[in-house]
Amino acid sequence: MNNSEIINVKDLTKRFPMGLSEFTALSGINLTFSKGEFSGVVGPSGSGKTTLLNIIGLLDNPSDGDAIILGNSSKDLSPGKAALMRRRHMGFIFQTYNLLPVYTVFENTEFPLLLLKMTSGEREKAVHEALEWVGLTDKIKSRPAQLSGGECQRVAIARAMVKHPEIVLADEPTANLDADNSHHILKTMEKLNNELKTTFIFATHDDKVISYLKRKITLIDGKVSHDETVKQ
User: Fold this and answer.
1) Cβ-proximal residues to 91 (8 Å cutoff; 6+ apart), any chain
2) What distance in Å separates the CA atoms of residue 73 and residue 67, rounded to the nearest whole number?
3) How many Cβ atoms sit within 10 Å of the Cβ of residue 66?
4) Mean of the pLDDT values across residues 82-100?
5) What is the pLDDT of residues 10-55, one digit of tens each?
6) How far does Cα 149 stand from its chain's mean position?
7) Are the beta carbons of 224 and 218 closer than 8 angstroms?
8) Which of 130, 173, 190, 227 is the most buried (most CB within 10 A)?
């Protein structure tokens, strides 16, 4: 693996049991991702986008082949070590925000840091920095029910970025947002990618997201049909 390569997916196949047979969600995937990429896995529903993201995020295991994440083979990681990798090195952004409704914006953003060995002062500084990135310092004491959908997704971005992860995986992050909010969210993520060199990988079929990508990987029926650099 070269110095800039942080993800290497090798001959990856994923099958799921379906009654007495099996469904092949991914078949023979070979991909590498370098530090600082802003890329997306695109394709219709059922093409395997989320399955691939889940394997890269160590939330699922390949049936065959391997996913080597930051030098660690997914085949060699115990569930505990996989959880430690996610905790330290990865951020996740979902289409449904997944904020804790009884927690404030500050507490939702701080949550991933509670699993790390940080002092309360270090956590507070990191949370304020992350909320400045997404423009929500004025909502720090608000709860999710008091926020718009766009604001909730910006909290989700802050939560994903607060620990400065090497990799952020975003699964349909604009699916529940209107066009204006979608562009605001995407510009925020693009800015963080440029400034922090975080690797962003999206799973999406949203044209708004696709228009921001610098690399577009198209999945059709669980196979890579195109892998192209996009001219901005």
Assistant:
1) 112, 159, 160, 161, 163, 165, 167, 168, 169, 198
2) 6
3) 17
4) 92
5) 999 999 998 889 999 999 999 999 999 999 999 998 899 999 999 9
6) 18
7) yes
8) 173
Type of residue numbered 67: A
Q: Please tell me the distance from the alpha carbon of residue 77 to that of residue 110, in angstroms, as a whole number.
A: 27
The two structure tokens encoding residue 130: 């992350």
DSSP structural state of residue 10? E
Using CA atoms in the order 29, 216, 85, 159, what is the torsion angle rounded to 10 degrees? -150
Q: What's the rounded Cα separation, in Å, for the pair 42 and 157?
A: 20
Please enumerate in sequence order all residues whose Cβ is within 8 A of that of 119, keeping only pairs 6 or more positions apart, or say none: none
Contact 167, 202 (CB under 8 A): no
Q: What's the whole-number mean pLDDT along residues 136-157?
A: 94
Closest CA to 216 of 203, 204, 230: 230
194 CB-near residues (< 8 Å, 6+ apart): none
For residue 113, give every residue at least 6 positions away whose Cβ sits within 8 Å of its Cβ, in sequence order, or none.
122, 123, 126, 127, 162, 163
Q: Which residue has the tokens 């099996």?
A: 22
Structural domains in the chain, CATH included, are: 36-64+71-229 (3.40.50.300)
Whole-model pTM above 0.90?
yes
Q: Which residues of 194-228 are buried (b: 16+ CB within 10 A; e: fewer)?
A: eeeebbbbbbbbbeebeebbbbbbbbeebebeeee
Question: Do 97 and 125 form a contact (C-beta atoms < 8 A)?
Answer: no
Angstrom CA distances, 222 to 3, 15, 95, 210, stand at: 29, 10, 22, 19
